[in-house]
Amino acid sequence: PLVAPHPDALALVHSWLGHHGVPPASVSATHGGGWLTVAAVPVPQANALLGASYQLYRHAETHETVLRTLGYALPAALLAHVRTVVPTTHFGS
């Protein structure tokens, strides 16, 4: 890849996830490590990780249900390294 995250940044994110009980086997990287996917995190654990309050939301017309939160937070040490966390606050168009 043309741009990849610094190894220290990846180590910091992995350390934070591990500190919160996310097993390394649940984390996979794509795009040269620039995108991390964390699989099978229960909602209560995601809420604790992100200071969030995930809830189910139902679209009034389509009746599609999505799991989202209205806000989340990351530790200050991660802010310079993490651009986005999904799914969180994006409900689509």
UniProtKB/TrEMBL annotation:
<dbReference type="GO" id="GO:0004175">
    <property type="term" value="F:endopeptidase activity"/>
</dbReference>
<dbReference type="GO" id="GO:0006508">
    <property type="term" value="P:proteolysis"/>
</dbReference>
<dbReference type="InterPro" id="IPR050819">
    <property type="entry name" value="Tripeptidyl-peptidase_I"/>
</dbReference>
<protein>
    <recommendedName>
        <fullName>Peptidase S53 activation domain-containing protein</fullName>
    </recommendedName>
</protein>
<dbReference type="GO" id="GO:0008240">
    <property type="term" value="F:tripeptidyl-peptidase activity"/>
</dbReference>
<dbReference type="Pfam" id="PF09286">
    <property type="entry name" value="Pro-kuma_activ"/>
</dbReference>
<feature type="domain" description="Peptidase S53 activation">
    <location>
        <begin position="1"/>
        <end position="91"/>
    </location>
</feature>
<dbReference type="InterPro" id="IPR015366">
    <property type="entry name" value="S53_propep"/>
</dbReference>
